[in-house]
Amino acid sequence: MRLSPPEGDEAPRELVEEEPLSIIVQGKPYAVVMRTPGDERAHVAGFGLAEGLLDRPADIHHISLCEREETSFVALTLTEERRAQVPELLERKSFLSQTSCGLCGKQVVEDLTQKVSPLGDGPTITAAGMAECVRALCARQAMYSSTRASHAACLFDAEYRLLALGEDVGRHNAVDKAVGQLFLRDELARAQILLASSRISYELVQKAARARVPIVIALSHPTSLAVELAGKLNMTVVTIRERTGTTVYCGGHRIR
Predict the structure, then answer these.
(1) Out of 66, 101, 154, 250, which one is annotated catalytic?
(2) What is the CA radius of gyration of the chain?
(3) Backbone angles phi, psi at 181, to 5 degrees
(4) Could you read off the pLDDT of 127-186 as tens digits, one per residue?
(5) 133 an active-site residue?
């Protein structure tokens, strides 16, 4: 039931789906993420890259989705060579994905900058190009159009061509889905711009850095930790807001 619906908008909107997805790595539970069903293989590939389980598509021996009435899970197995490179990650206990990690901001930045190398200085983009990317994202948010309750993430090349789109109830999942789509096609090197409909948290900066995407644009503001981490990794963080305009928080050398 809707009270006082706006004129011309009387039909109730759909509810966005949210279900758990279990991620199994090498036959053992690794994580449980709350997500919107769909694009699971890409989701787990992007998640695996962000976690450090994967560096390249060739690290994947097999990835498969199993759907049952009670639960859904994706099984990821690594090549023997990759397993030998990440033994400490494979020995960790499983966790439920969440925003808080229990670490102080300074420790988070120090840890992540030790694990992820700074990005190079290119490419450069324009304000008009960024606006073009925003228009492309807004025109393709099918899930948001029907639910008004989802996030989207798009990847573009340096000429503002759309390469991948992910939509999900969770902003982290949307990024993982978009990144994973290109990762599985071995085309992630083409991506230079990440555009997210949400705010920019340090986790989103981490995911972009692991994907080697230097420019992160969002339709909401970043956190202080996100800007600090992005600055140390030589990344560009920009917010585009209808009322307040465009704000460059770090990496302004990439804006022409």
Answers:
(1) 101
(2) 18
(3) -60, -50
(4) 999 999 999 999 999 999 999 899 999 999 999 999 999 999 999 999 999 999 999 999
(5) no
